[in-house]
Amino acid sequence: MDVLRRNTDYALRMMVNLASRFNGEFISARELASEGNFSYQLGCKILQKLHKANLVKSNMGTKGGFALSRKPSEITLLEIITVLQGGIRLNRCLLGGEGCEFEPECEISTKLACLQLYVDGYLGGITLEEILRSRSKIKTENR
After folding, report:
1. What are the sequence ranges of the domains in the chain?
2. What is the pLDDT at residue 90?
3. Nearest to 114 by CA among 105, 125, 122
4. What integer pLDDT is reported at residue 143 of this predicted model?
């Protein structure tokens, strides 16, 4: 079982790509899909979700395309993941709502809830800017 779905992985890669060009430049959906190595149609669907969530903005015309709607330092991995797949849940009992039949005496759910808070906090603390810094540090070290 994958924790991150395929579309979420593509969205994360597109957002890092857009963050690396955060200078007012708009990039076409076709170019983003080509650079991410997935289909244009899938890229468009993902970009629609990201646009609806106000993570990207779009511009029509010959110099049109997509760009981040906020600074890379203001967009977290958790935001992107939540838009695409509704977050990451370690177990069904952590989805909220009615819970499960074992909840009142379940020793495991307490520990899983703590881990869930850690995962959400960790992903919520990683920005696109931080990923770009890590990427450039790796490139520098490999030279």
Report:
1. 6-138
2. 77
3. 122
4. 58
Predicted model pTM: 0.85
As a whole number of Å, the CA-based R_g of the chain is 18
Nearest-angstrom CA–CA distance, 114 and 126: 19
Going from the first residue of the chain to its last (143 residues), give the mean pLDDT of each consecutive group of 10, the final group possibly shorter: 86 96 90 94 96 95 90 97 89 63 74 88 96 76 61
For residue 92, CA distances in Å to 118, 119, 130 come to 17, 15, 31
Contact 16, 9 (CB under 8 A): no
Residue 95 tokens, joined:
């989805």
Map 92-142 to HEC letters: HHHCCCCCCCCHHHCHHHHHHHHHHHHHHHHHHCCEHHHHHHHHHHHHHHC
Query: Within 13 Å, how many C-alpha atoms sit on residue 129's CB side?
Result: 8
Tokens of 45: 């669907």
**Which class does domain 6-138 fall in?**
mainly alpha
